[in-house]
Amino acid sequence: MRILAFETTCDETSAAVLEGGRLRSNEVFSQISLHRKYSGVVPELASRAHLEKIPFVIGGALRRAGVRAPLKKGAFDAVAFSRGPGLPGALMVGRVAAEAAAELAGAPLVGVNHLEGHLLACEFAGGRASEPLEFPLVALLVSGGHTELWHARGYGDYRVLGRTRDDAAGEAFDKVAKLLGLPYPGGPAVEKEAARAAGKVPDFPRPHMPGTRDFSFSGLKTAVSYYLAGRLGQDFYKRGLRLPPGDRARVCRAFQDAVTETLVKKTADTARSLGLKRIAVGGGVSANGALRAAFARLQGFEVRFSERAYCSDNAAMVALCALRRLEAGKYRNSLRVAPGLADPGW
Ligand code: KG4
Ligand code: ZN
Predict the structure, then answer these.
(1) How far, in Å, CA of 168 to CA of 218, rounded?
(2) Please, which residues have CB less than 5 A from ligand 2, an ion?
(3) Domain match, 144 and 102 both
(4) What is the CATH number of the domain that holds 269?
């Protein structure tokens, strides 16, 4: 089974070829440098950059996989794309590219849920989809736009148990980094700073929100902002005032601890309440070393993460979702599905 896949939900333009469960290519063009000066993704710039880069990304993915261009009938058994959730203009670029490729190859078009991609990315080991997930499990999906807990009962059988009511975990990292004068994307920058922290760290609230499986991270971000205002003055951000490096590292550490503890506690409580022992964590934030270490310390659970290379957005994970669907014989030709539809089921 040979699958071509596209990923264009946010600020990575990616195309991949998966053949017989083995990744033949996974080209990723990251737009980070384009968005950095705005400290976040600018949707219109993202759409344009996808449009500009996608021909090169497709070309690279085909070349590396040894597939001749232009595509001939039968070149692929399926063409997959992330159909959402994501930025509308960005999604359209991947969808149109996938439609064209599917038409040329005479292959079915499979639209997949981007967050399902982050979950199934856990199955890759050394470029092979060789570590299948065992179900049922609780999935924690933590990215720049989403923070969700799913009850995953099998491939394509997902129920959303909780999600963030305001900022996503990754978004909180990005916004706190901006307040501290650290570059975009905030997650890796905050993690690096936090690793240098020494001494007592500030005390930030843990947004546990008892009685619900939902999350809320905007209060924590506000707590960081108040702390900085207390230290530097109300209009610190506008005036470009920043903490000395040692203090900044301690704020990063305290913030990261608060996010990590909240994610781990909520996920473990949810798994316990459902009587489940398996947890899988995916999405850009799952690259965070402190989060991985905190889950590793959890007793009584089997916790899966994807290899770091597949934590952030990539088309390999999209191809894998399509493969699992085709194997199950369960997919609908996405030409008939409205753009942007993003329910996590098949
Ligand atoms: O999944 P992803 O690549 O794109 C979306 O689907 O949004 O996630 C990007 C998010 C960004 O908010 C970024 O700051 C965060 O993942 N992130 C991290 C780390 N690496 C990326 N957050 C915390 N620690 C990291 N090491
Ligand atoms: Zn993502």
Answers:
(1) 8
(2) 143, 313
(3) no
(4) 3.30.420.40
